[in-house]
Amino acid sequence: MKKILSIIILFSFCLISNVKAQNETTRKKHYNITDNVALSGYDPMTYFINKPLPGKESISYTYKGITYRFISNKTKNIFKKSPEKYEPAYGGWCAYAIAKKKPVLMEADPETYKIIDGKLYVFYNSFGINTVKKWNKNEEKSKDSANKNWKKIVLGN
To answer: What pLDDT does residue 13 have?
Structure first.
C-alpha cells in the first residue's frame, strides 16, 4: 500500500511540474520579452508611482516565467504581493496593435503608456507614429476589441 501511495504522489508531482513548465512556456510565447525580461527592463511599479524608470538587473523577480526588473526592493516587494495587478496588459505588446481587426504582436515603447482602470497598457511610438493617440480616439472600442483579440491569441483560436 505504501508503495502504491508513493507512486501516486510521485506521479502527481511530475504532472504538476509538467503543467507548471507548460504554463511558463506558453506565457513566454505570448509575452513581449527580450532575454526573458519584460517591459524592456523597466520597473512595472514606476508606471503607477510617477513615470517609468529602468529597473536594475540586480533587483529582479521572475513571475510565472517572466522576469521583471525593479528600481528598489520596495517596488519589487509591492509587485510580488499582486503581480497580476501590475503586469502589462496583452503581454506588454502594443495595445493598439492587438485591438486591430487583424491583431499584430507589435513592439511597444516602454515610455508610451496609459493606466486604464488600474491596468498598464503600453503602445508603439516610433518614426512619428504614436499609437496611443489612435487608441485614444475610441478607447472603449479599442479596449473591447483588444480584450477579445488577446483571448483568441492566448487560447490559440
So the answer is: 38
pTM, entire model: 0.83
For residues 61 and 74, the answer to whether their CB atoms sit within 8 Å is no
Q: Grid coordinates representing 118? A: 488600474
Between CA 47 and CA 144 the distance in angstroms is 22
Distance CA 96, CA 131 (A): 6
For the CA atoms of 49, 55, 60, 61, the dihedral, rounded to the nearest 10 degrees, stands at 40
Mapping DSSP to helix (H, G, I), strand (E, B) and coil, where does residue 148 land? helix
pLDDT tens profile 21-41: 448 888 888 899 999 999 999
Separation between Cα atoms, residue 20 and residue 10, nearest integer Å: 15
Phi-psi region of 68 (alpha: psi -120 to 50; beta: other; left: phi over 0): beta
Calpha distance 139→134 (Å, rounded): 9
